[in-house]
Each structure stands twice: as structure tokens, then as C-alpha cells.
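Data deposition worksheet. Section B asks for the primary sequence of the deposited chain exactly as it was used as input, without tags or linkers unless they were present during the calculation. Section C holds the resulting structure in C-alpha cell form. Section D is free text for depositor observations; keep each observation to a single sentence. Incomplete worksheets are returned to the depositor.
Section A, Depositor: J.P.
Section B:
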Amino acid sequence: MTWPIADFDEIRRLRVLHAAMPGTLIAETRLRMPFAQVWEALDDIGTAFPELLPDVRRIDADTRTGERFTAHILGRSGLRGRFEIVMRPGWCVMQSRLLTFAMAAVPDGEHTRFGYLTGIRIRGSHRFGGLLRPLHGVLGRRTIRRFERRFGAA
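Section C:
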């Protein structure tokens, strides 16, 4: 039997990543702008991410060759880390030793379906899921609102 994984759009892939990483936060929305415009803006991570992600102050990306590269991120909370990044149209996953961020986008007619995921990569962090759930809701809505302000909510 073959699995239809190739049929998964990027939003479904994000949901699979969320299911495989207990304790992560996932939030989704529908943006008013077309996919090409949304992803063109997001592809410039040095400019877009500090505006859109709550704790990102600055991103210094290493030379980008293909879809894989590294970046050093400075956060407003003092976060400093080296992230391995995979970025291609509609898909971005960033992982450091301690954190994971991911974004997915797919065309939806003249609009864009968009998803965001974040979580801590510490062994046993899933045990705090119940305690973190209210915080996840607040952080998820706050982050999604930034994207909706930038690209319009559909």
C-alpha cells in the first residue's frame, strides 16, 4: 500500500508536524491576498519575520543555496539561536536546538490559506500541554492577527 503523502498540501503537512510534535501550537487563517504575493513577502525572512513573529527582533541569514540554509535569530525576549531552515514556496520550517517554527501557505482561489506552528523542542515538553494550552491560544491568535493585519483577513 502506498500512502498519498504527495497529495498533502502544505497546510496538511503542517498539521502532521503538529501531531508528531506534542506540545506545539498551531493556528490557521485565510488571508485576503493571493498566494504569490503572500509568499513573495515571506520569502524575504530578514524583513518579514521581525515584523510578523512576536519574539523575532532580527534575522541574519547565511548564504542561501537552494531551500536549505541557516540563520542566526535575535529575539526581543533575549532569545539567541542558530536555526536550520528549509524554505520553499508555501513551506518554511525553522529549528534550533530548543525551538521549532513552521509556516505553510496554499492558494485558495484569489486568497491564501495560511498556518503557523511553534513549539519547544525539549524532551518531555509534551507533559506541559494542558498547562500551556491557554497560552497557546493567546499566542496563536496574536501571531495570526499580525499576518491578517499585513495581508488582510479574508
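Section D:
The CA atoms of residues 100 and 119 lie 5 Å apart.
The first helix runs from residue 10 to 20.
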